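Suppose you are handed a protein chain with no further information: no name, no annotation, nothing but its sequence. What can you learn? This example shows the usual starting point.
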Amino acid sequence: MKNQSIIKKCLLLVSIIVIIVSFQSCDEFVDVDQPNSQLTTQAVFENATTATAAVTDMYAQLREHGVLTGRINGLSNLLGTYSDELISYENGIYTSEPFYTNSLSPSMTYISNIWNRSYTQIYAANAVLEGLDNSNTIPENTKNQLRGEALFIRSLVHFYLINLYGDVPYITSTEYRQNSVATRTAKELIYQNIINDLETASNLVNAEYTQAGRNRPNRSTIKALLARVYLYNGDYPEAANTASAVINETSLYSVVNNLDQVFLRNSTSTIWQLSPGSNGPNTHEGSTFIFMTGPPIRVSLSEELISQFEVNDLRKVHWIKSVTNGNNVWYHPFKYKQNNITATSQENSIIFRLEEQILIRAEARARQGEIIGAIEDINIIRSRAGLPNTTAVSQSELIEAIKQERQVEFFTELGHRFFDLKRWNLLDQVLATKPGWNNTDALWPLPLAEMNANPFLTPQNPGY
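A reasonable first move is to predict its three-dimensional structure. Written in structure tokens, the prediction is:
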């Protein structure tokens, strides 16, 4: 009987994977056929083990596909070349070249993949929420944790979509017929929906991590995203307060002074990270960015970025590596130092870390005129980088100092630089010298196939 139970659970887990993979294989979100998975879905949400497996598989999908992946088609690489962090040496429409030359088109595969993968992940989160709502057998505390995680994923992916494409459909169900004719929701309303979902999620998930490794979000993870959303939305008091709630969890998080250890899998500054799933593999980021000989075949760090580091900034020493052929020198990100399988996995892909919360609070404080608090936060980051205290004393000087710190702290991490320039209204000023840059490039084009399939997505973003 025990063996039969194990076999049954394994078959259910296989069913989960088949369902999610079938969603991932769809070419277009709006063309997803009604899944013939009612019985399987009911089985998945009959017990806590299989329901949890459905949720944890979503994290595997986030790591492998879409906005968060560290692969070459993820935002760390694409937005690094789209802004001023990376130089692309690639050629062709299936590479980072169009992002570097700002020659995006609605028919590009990378553009449609980001859109389709994102909505598939949102669909999976909604499927979990609906499955939990219909379950009468899963303990309520488990339901709450899983609900909170699904709301977090739905919020996180929508956050990236609106910052890439502008107004997009805000999807909260698995009703495929309704979703296939979804209209674009105003960015302001999506932000409010995200805030509502995250506030709900924060009250559902546990304060402690449910397992070792920080691979599933806890309450502080929810608040970390919420603090970022408040900052982007200009709600500075809430941004400062929410970031403080994370920073004050000193039993969980602390600044890592050894910069070579910040991106290790057991780093105490990590709030949430994505596991490779098995013991031995490391990050896609390492494989994407590290090169051993020049010239690079993919990307290298730009001189514009290299020149922004102050003398004696330890981040430049520990997070950047130079490669030379004797005549020329190139640089690559060296935050993640492993680009091969090791005996045991040493690095996970970090999505949220404590340093962002410190600089969120610094900026929110500065914009409210809280000078002393902002200075204290900036100096935490500078001290760890081996730099003297900031000389900024006025509000405007502090904001400029924070912009500088964010540039050299978060380079090649999930598009922070591009999103920062965008929310500061500095895209045209900073990126004007890039080949092909236009002021309409603040938004990516909506995928052509999606617009052809769903006329309610019109109009296309300006410039495309």
